[in-house]
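Notes from the pairing session

We agreed to fold both candidates in a single pass and log them together. This is the raw record for the first candidate, unedited. Please don't reformat it; downstream parsing expects exactly this layout.

Candidate A
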Amino acid sequence: MAHNVIIIGSGPAGYTAAIYLGRAGLDPVMVTGALTPGGQLVNTTEVENFPGFPDGIMGPELMDNMRAQAKRFGTEFIADDVTAIESAGSDDAPLYRLALSDGETLETRAVIITTGSNFRKLGVPGEVELSGHGVSYCATCDGFFFRDKPIVVVGGGDSAFEEALFLTRFGSSVTLIHRRDEFRASQIMVDRAKENPKLTLLTNTVVTEIHGTETAPAAPAAPALNLGGLALKPKPQVNVSSVSLKNTVTGETSELETAAVFVAIGHTPATDFAASVASRDEDGYIIVDGASTRTSTPGIFAAGDCVDCVYRQAISAAGMGCRAALDAQEYLSE
């Protein structure tokens, strides 16, 4: 049996598309991913800039709410990964076959790709352990939490400079660390950084480790839990406190105190599986037709961070997911 439309990937774009398609009676199927359904927001703590939540909302809770709303309108969820897409129909009756990582296949009349992109990571000790506790990959999302505290940004491109300049609004100081003595960023961005008194450029330097320390509680510690006579104390909170540095020319090592490390060394869109059905740019982002979500293949649509290399926000991804659903609905009605 061929489905009407299959959404590949979850997150704000995928869930929004599912909500719209479900309400249109198209019985969408979502292949959420085998390990991390919900996209990058499931690894985010408090989200304060998504409309409708004046007191903020935790990232995982926001994704759970979106999933529940999509389920309410009939979305079927499959916890697996799509490994390839191929044409299985004719010019008069296009059909697509999706291969899943468990060996199963699905057929559908239309596909919406919302697999997002992955932050490139430093790969140093402490990065994974302190993610969400001072290690961040989004200044717009998390900069506010480090008001009047020292901040480190790692990277040398336009994105890194944009993040560093943005973070000077919040941090007591911002240090941008780059492994070379020349930057990939445009000269105007470099000039703006040099003119900002709160921003320091540290070149020929790499971060070799990120350190954390226990944070003193702002209020009296919660009482120990007593379960069957066994007293359990709450696990102490550990946040970023410093980074270890190494000069790439001299080999000299040092340590820099900081409350946050923002990693801005690029993104990798998760689109390799779709290379045979969707044209991509040199960085792997899926190319769409103008302001639509139509790809180079009729019946294949794309939305969210697998398309958007500029904004990369939950709200913009959700908006694009809406457009993808409407584009797919129009295609299926032809």
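Candidate B (folded immediately after A)
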Amino acid sequence: MTTPATAAGASGAEQYGLIPALQQGGVISWSVFILLVLSLFISLFILMSKWWEQQKIINQSKGVRGSFWSAPNLRDAATKLEKNSAYRQIVDDGLLAEDQHTKLTDPIDQHEWINNSIARSTASIGAKLSGGLPFLATVGSVAPFVGLFGTVVGIYRALIAIGAAGQASIDKVAGPVGEALIMTALGLITAVPAVLAYNWLLRRNKVIMESLVAFANDVHGYMVSGGAVRPSFGVVKPAPVKVGATASGVQTTKA
């Protein structure tokens, strides 16, 4: 059975909870609260979606080192890459530029034409990877100030309550002060993950773009050299040779 003291305590806790504090704050408090919560969920969504997108490209890079450069020519090598992947896009754009060069009416060096096409392809991939990061940067910068605005409104309402009551009693200021603290905390909770996600994703983008640019340079060198120039890890090296002395002379054997 609930005693009167316990019931009164429960009633007081409900009176000073999150929802009552927001209801007392009115439209401004609800607007700030909804804006911050929505920004937090969008930031988390961007974090997960960009991580998944980055991880796909990182996994694709392993396949490039494994089998791409061992193909007899670039067109056969392209078929070994996942369709619509970042690396496949660079190769396809390079091959397309090679085919288009013969149709140009104004003279331009083939290597320059191919290099420009591959560079544009790489830049478009970088722009796609950077999508959503400006939003994270904006949330990380603005969210604390939005929370601070809610804090100021809460403190203002607390001062109004004190002035109306003529004394600073706890029951008059607990609601507005609690609302102010909630807005401060919510602003920080929204901003910190956004800043951390932005810096982490930006660093991963930099590593991915370094790998893509290196691959684009390798593709360009391969195309303008007719396949003579390729990365060292894509060249099958001959087996080492041992030279050993025998009773009849010098004998050469494979390791």
